[in-house]
Fold ComF family protein.
Amino acid sequence: MLALRTYLSDFVSLIFPELCPACHASLMANEDTLCTDCLYNLPFTNFHQQPDNIVARQFSGKLAIEAAYALYYFNKGGKVQNMVHEFKYNGMHRIGNKLGNIAGKQLIQNPVFGTVDYIIPVPLHKKRLKTRGYNQSACFADGLADKLNAIIETDNLIRIVATQTQTHKSRFARFQNMQEVFAVANPDKLAGKHVLLVDDIVTTGSTLEACGIELLKVPGLKLSIATIAYAE
């Protein structure tokens, strides 16, 4: 029976091969979500080894953060963009969990991230969540939580305003677009805790900044940031 199932699985894979979302090559039988080449050769930032990295400097003077991180560099037309597009718009939510696991293995090497109590994904408005079916940042958070031994908190930071897309907006317009968009539902639960705020891509950082401003109103809260990619 096991041999038959294996044969049928191999046959289906031959007719409908599963593709790597980054390079679109067919996955081999022992490859999970990403092909081996992409798994090891996508453009890692190694920001977990660089406390004063680009993302951390982006929030300097704006948010009092403990640490900041992005897993990959995002280049237009590159493999990371392909992967993020499949993740966000083509229903491949398992990519987020895979990338969260990869990122978590890096972050656990950094003692600052090792003290995280809660992981909070940037929330989608309920209308967009209904349309997409899942929050890509929450999928990434799931993978991170497995490695950081932290608790995912998805209902505390809430989006109270449905904003327009940030694409093609200037830095100032993005910041203006995110004003008074988020709120903390249960601040007592987060008081004195180390919170890791996560998103898919950081560009200007306006969304993360808006979330961070609300979170840092909680007494004693320490804030760190992690994303899948940093867009240069």
Residues 2-14 have pLDDT under 50 and may be disordered. The first strand starts at residue 65 and ends at 74. Residues 66 and 116 are 10 Å apart (CA to CA).
